[in-house]
Amino acid sequence: MYFLNIGRKQINFIPILWGLMHKNTYANVTTLSAIAISAILLTSFTMLGMQLSQHALAQNATSAAPSNATSAAPSTNQTAAQEPTVGQSFVWQGTKSSQVSPLPGHAKEQVAAILIPRSDGAVYSGVLTFSTTKGANVEVWHAYNPGNTSALGSKTFGTLKTANYNGMPVAITDLSGSGSSASVPFSGNAVLLHAGSPFTVTYTVNAVAQPAKTINNVQSAMAAAPPAAPKTLSPGNATGSSSSSSGTSSKSTTPPQPTTLS
Fold it and tell me: Hey, which end of the chain has fewer CB within 10 Å, N or C?
């Protein structure tokens, strides 16, 4: 036994040592517990931070998708400037004001372009429903390239309503009479509303663009055309014509340049 004599008192060291050992053990357990709790809290905070980061990234990705979709949607002012993908149906709607017709010789007429000629020559087919502030008719333009046109303007076959848009010959079809509203099926290279004075139109067009194959057959018109009579001049007529033309000054005129559709 471990005793310490102090005067008349004896002190037993075993309870004291046992208390110190027990105290050290309690300190060690407390320290380990604190370390374990700190590790658990650190791991929890780390996992929570990762979850919050993933959630934020998901929200950013979700918010970015509608933004792109909204910017890609055609606006009312850009409808005519865009070309839908060939073979993919589309639905456009909006309100437009008319402009001066871009066709030469039609400067006094007003048109509102719903679908303008495509750069790839594809043809639109679908349905146009509209309401206008004034009476207007639907015009459909077709690419016009029949080849030999020497006989197409004859009295036998009559003439087509044609024009030229930015170097592209077009044949014009009127699908409806003048009215303030209608729903009209169509197929052609361009779709417009036409009137004699300015107007606005609200419309919905449901259509698809498809490539077209051009097939011309004007052999009957060419066969029906009378052969051109040869023209001969006598020396006297030739002299008179020469003197007459020498005394007259020719005046060249520049045809009006067509504008573009908007």
Answer: N
Task: Report percent pLDDT > 90 for the chain.
Answer: 38
CA dist., res. 104 & res. 254, Å (int) = 12
Nearest Cα to 126, choosing from 192, 189, 181, 205? 205
Report whether 168 contacts 143 (CB < 8 A).
Answer: yes
Which of the four pLDDT bands, split at 50, 70 and 90, describes residue 231? low
Q: Give SS3 for 244.
A: helix
Pairwise CA distance, residues 206 & 185, whole Å? 10
Query: Rounded to whole angstroms, how far apart are CA atoms 240 and 243?
Result: 5
In the prediction, which pLDDT does 99 show?
96
Count CB neighbours of 68 within 10 A: 9
What is the sign, positive or negative, of the torsion defined by CA atoms of 81, 189, 201, 89?
negative
Q: Count of CB atoms within 10 A of residue 123's CB? A: 20
Q: How many CA atoms lie within 13 A of 197 on its CB side?
A: 3
| Nearest in space to 117 (alpha carbons), one of 146, 145, 97, 152 | 145
> What average pLDDT is seen over the chain?
73
Reported as a single tens digit per residue, the pLDDT across 115-162 is: 999 999 999 999 999 999 999 999 999 999 887 666 566 677 778 889
**Exposed, middle or buried by CB within 10 Å (0-12, 13-18, 19+), for 118?**
middle
Cα of first residue to Cα of last residue in the chain, in angstroms, is 112
